[in-house]
Amino acid sequence: MNSIQQTVFDNLPRHKRGPSGWSSFNAPCCPHNGESYDKKGRGGVITDGEGISYHCFNCGYKTGWKPGRHISYKFRKLLDWLGVDENERQRAVVEALRIKDTVVIEEEVEEPEFTIEFPKRDLPQDCVPLTQAPQELLEYAQLRQMPVEELLWSNTKPARMYKRIIIPCTWQGRVIGSTARAADNETKPKYFNNYESNYVYGIDRQIPGGKFSVVCEGIIDALTIGGVATLTNRCNDTQAQIIDTLGREIVLVPDRDKAGQKLIDDALEYGWSVSFPEWEADVKDINAAVIRYGKLFTLKSIIDTKQTNRLKINLMRKRLG
Question: Which pTM was predicted?
Fold first, then answer.
């Protein structure tokens, strides 16, 4: 067995192997999926070459892994329910990524299915490119290192939109909403949001075939580094599954404040790496780093300081407060 298969079998409850190759045991997933505890051995795992599959014949939960595939969100949840400790789960994530970079795939690897649709919400009325906005708005966007060509403006009064920079929110190539950032300190609220809950900004902007994706809280952080944003200081299960569909190593960069601690907790739950870049003390988030150091240096500092070990992450997070 490879190390990922071995991790599963080392943590199985009492089980028996049948003539078909399935190892059966009481399924640990049922109480997490609306069913009572399994007492009839309806959970099963089977190896298939270098891969492994799990199927619960009670609640229907299915997941698996094979070389060339990343460790999916559903597979990580199975490891959690089997009692695999967080360090072992993270090692499995890293090992799968290592194998993915080296293994020769003779046929296409089927990724776990996860789909979600976001209903369309209209952009503010009379949107035009930001280049047609008053000079102070254009200068604000340039100061924040925002890609001006992707931004909009509306000379309308509701929500004082004429004082805001509009960032379109897209999903699968279509606009499904927006957020509008005030360009001064007097306009409240700072952000006027118009998108569905569970939305993750920036998925459409990820480079195909990339090895890493950077996760952050704020939309301007994601916009200026080419990352994805949870848009709050927590990441829920649906958002984690959306991010997981990228099929690459996920690196969280928390804001340097107390709120950033909550996203670190989520990153540990979902098996992500966490980065603690060595920025100057007054650089509190990714956008501030891009303004100070430039995009390429900021991105390199993120990748160079990413951590996968839970103990090291918990030691380094203390400096966030």
Answer: 0.76
